[in-house]
Each structure stands twice: as structure tokens, then as C-alpha cells.
Amino acid sequence: MRVLVIGTGGREHALVTALANDPAVASLHAAPGNPGMALLAELHPVDPMDPAAVAALATTLQADLVVVGPEAPLVAGVADAVRAAGISCFGPSGAAAQLEGSKAFAKDVMTAAGVPTARAFTCTTPAEAAAALDEFGAPYVVKNDSLAAGKGVVVTDDRDAALAHAAECGRVVIEEYLDGPEVSLFVVTDGKAARPLLPAQDFKRLADNDEGPNTGGMGAYAPLDWAPSDLTPTVLDQVVFPVLREMTDRGTPFQGLLYVGLALTSKGGPKVIEFNARFGDPETQVVLPLLENGLAGLLLAAANGTLDAHPELTWRDAAAVTVVIASDGYPAKPVAGDVITGADGPGYIHAGTKLTSEGLVSAGGRVLCCTAVAPSLPEARDAAYALVDKVSLRASQHRTDIARPR
Ligand code: AMP
Ligand code: GLY
Predict the structure, then answer these.
(1) Given this model, what pLDDT does residue 313 score?
(2) Averaged confidence pLDDT in the chain
(3) For the chain, percent helix, then strand, then coil, each to nearest 5?
(4) Which of 63, 179, 233, 320 has the most beta carbons within 10 angstroms of its beta carbon?
(5) DSSP label at 230?
(6) 114 assigned to some structural domain
(7) 352 with 363: CB under 8 angstroms?
């Protein structure tokens, strides 16, 4: 199989790594890619936001399967263009990607499908926002309605800060605060059938003990030995299948990766915090290395609508941990261009790097995901932190409590 992966980040490097290990993949391409992916795949320059350019590249490469990594190209209709060119594409249409592209649309779908989630109001004026905040009380949750690369959500006890975020965004969803640990559940789907992946946990705040600002994710681990054993079947039954049916009924079936972000609330069981229309980052870095099945066949079956006939997934009896090394200034103002040394050998997933005449340099907020797999979680954690210790990057930031015993 000839496979093309679209994107530049850690998630795409993790996808490329899993595809490179799959004997069904005869030729592996990435666009635009990054220096980590370059070791495993042939890179091609392309604007990932340009549907026609991506479709043309896939056609030139005679790709059998295109995997679109990030949300922005999906929302921009890249998967539609690839499919229109007659090529199988893993990833939802632009219309179906609105499950991630608009928080208000996602809430509407959840309400229609009877999915457990936080009660919410969509607000466009300061008066509406104030009324919604007072309806729910603190802690306040204010979400930018449109794509904000993980930075659109403010959770705060400060009513003025909540109002200011609402005013800055224009259109927001204000919702009830959900307590409880968060779990990311990824589901591969062709629109009807679904194959859940292992639940994982992401660490969204910048600093240890969940302090500091929200980020795209500072680390992750899997499996979650503390999660209820019926979590995945419950979420399939209460969330995934109702949403897939609702999307089909609306004429916009969802094919690709449905990322269900959950809060395991103390009173109400699992409730949806958000949907994403693509693999999560950095959870993908820990989930895919534990998958025993070939990834390419699974994604192709979803793309082609034949997932029902695909074998059930099996998982390694092991644990995986990833620790993100972020640049100086992340998340507010990441500094790029600092030299990275020591990130050689397996386990270094590149998230924001670039090769220059000075060597490897930082090129984004999250720079590297130091990823290890081991028989047990403590061993995987130690191995991931051993990878962190070998890297040097000026003023870099990382959490020291990823996958620490709870
Ligand atoms: P989102 O972009 O919707 O995933 O939100 C980012 C983060 O904000 C989540 O991972 C949660 O930590 C937090 N968050 C979002 N919605 C809620 C909520 N209703 N209650 C509590 N925390 C939330
Ligand atoms: N890990 C959070 C996300 O991918 O949105």
C-alpha cells in the first residue's frame, strides 16, 4: 500500500512511525512533514490547507490511502478533495469535521442525539454571556465557538476574566463545569461501524499538579488502569453510536477518527467535554505503539466503509508514556530557532522542529515528545524521563509529573 500522511506535528510523526512498522505499507510519504518523519517517509512540500494541492500530490504519488492529521485541513475540506480525486482518505468531510470546528454545532448534535454532556448556552453578546455565567456559577467555562488550536477554552473562578474571554471571542459556548478526571477515547469509524482504541490521559496544563495555562497537551499515558472496566462500551453505547447515527441522519456521515474527550464526573458518569475530528496530540504517541494490528489496513477499512468486516483490535500488554518538551515562552509566545541537541535515537517524536545550517532547531511551541514503551507504567515513565534528560534546549519546559502514581 502507498500511504500519504498530511501534517507536520507529533501526532503525524506518531502516525508515520506506526505506518512504517506495518508490513502492509510498501511506500510511505508525508507532506509537509518534519525532520523526524524524514527518517521514515519521503517528504513532499505542500500547503496542507490547500485541498486541490493535497489532492494533486496524492494523485501524483498514486497513493492508495491519504491520512489527514490535523483539524484545520479537515475543516477546510482536504478530505473531500482527496476523495473527489478517487483516492481513499481517512478523515471526515469538511461538513462532518464541524463536530470539532464549531463547539455550538457539536452541542447541537449532542443534544439531538441525547449524549451526556455539560449543559450549555451559545452566546454572542455580553448580556447573554453574563446571564449564562450567572446561571451556572463558578467555576466558569467559556469556549471560543471556532477552532482555536487548544487555546480557546478558559476555565476560571474570575467572572471578569470569563466575561473578557467571551468579549474577545465574539461567539462563545458557556457551559456547566464538569468535575472528575479526564479521559481521551479515540474511535476509528467508517460512519457506521466503530473500533475503539485504548483510553488515554492527556495532561493539558503547562505546569506540574495541573497548574498554569491550558496547552495543546504536555504529556500522556496509556493504558489507564484506574478507568472503569465498562468505560469503553458505555461510551460507545451512550455517545459514539448515537452521534454517528445523528451525523448520518443529517446527511453528513462522520468517517475518520472521532476523539471523545470525557470527564468521568462523580455524580453523572462519563460526560463529553469535547469532540475532535482527528487523532489527539500527544495521546496518539502513546496509543499507537500499543496497537498490535497493522494501522494502514484499519484506516483503509474506515476510509472504504468496510470496517465492520475488519478484525477486532488487540493490544500489547505494556504501557506507554510521552513527555512533551516545550519551547521557551510556550504557550503564550513560543520562541523558535533554538538549537536542540541529544534528541537522537528512537523515542523522540518530533512535534515542532526544523533542520537548518545550525542543525536541529525548535520550530514551534511543543518541540519533542519523549516517548517510551515498557512492560509496566513505572518503567515506561522512567524511560520517557530518561529520554527527556538527554535533550538540551535553551529554557525548555516540561512537566515532571506525567503518569505519576495517582
Ligand atoms: P476543550 O478544548 O473543550 O477540550 O477544553 C480544554 C480543556 O478545558 C479540557 O480538557 C478541560 O480540562 C477544560 N474544560 C473544558 N470544558 C470543561 C467543562 N465543562 N468543565 C470542566 N473543564 C472543562
Ligand atoms: N490532546 C488534546 C488534543 O489533541 O486536542
Answers:
(1) 98
(2) 96
(3) 30, 30, 40
(4) 320
(5) T
(6) no
(7) yes
Q: What domain range includes position 378?
A: 319-393
The CA–CA distances, whole Å, from 92 to 166, 301, 353 equal 29, 14, 28
Q: Are residues 136 and 232 in the same domain?
A: no
Q: Whose CA is nearest to atom 1 of ligand 1?
A: 274
Considering the domain architecture, whether residues 215 and 253 belong to the same structural domain is answered as yes
- CB of residue 22 inside a 6 A radius of ligand 1: no
Gap between the Cα atoms of 385 and 372, Å rounded: 9
How much of the chain, in percent, has pLDDT values that exceed 70? 99
Does residue 304 form part of some domain? yes
Quote the radius of gyration of the chain (alpha carbons, Å). Answer: 20
27 lines ligand 1 (CB under 6 A): no
Cα separation of 33 and 31, whole Å?
A: 5
**CATH label of the domain that carries residue 380:** 3.90.600.10
Same domain, 195 and 292: yes
Q: Count of H helices and E strands in the chain? A: 13, 24
Domain count, the chain: 4
Chosen domain end from 277, 309, 341? 309
| 21: in domain | yes
Give the cell for residue 178.
464538569
pLDDT digit string (tens) for 54-108?
999 999 999 999 999 999 999 999 999 999 999 999 999 999 999 999 988 999 9
- 188 and 305 part of one domain: yes
- 35-60 residue pLDDT tens: 999 999 999 999 999 999 999 999 99
Count CA atoms within 13 Å of residue 91 on its CB side.
Answer: 30
- State whether 140 and 228 are in the same domain: no
User: How far, in Å, from the CA of 58 to the mean position of ligand 2?
Assistant: 27
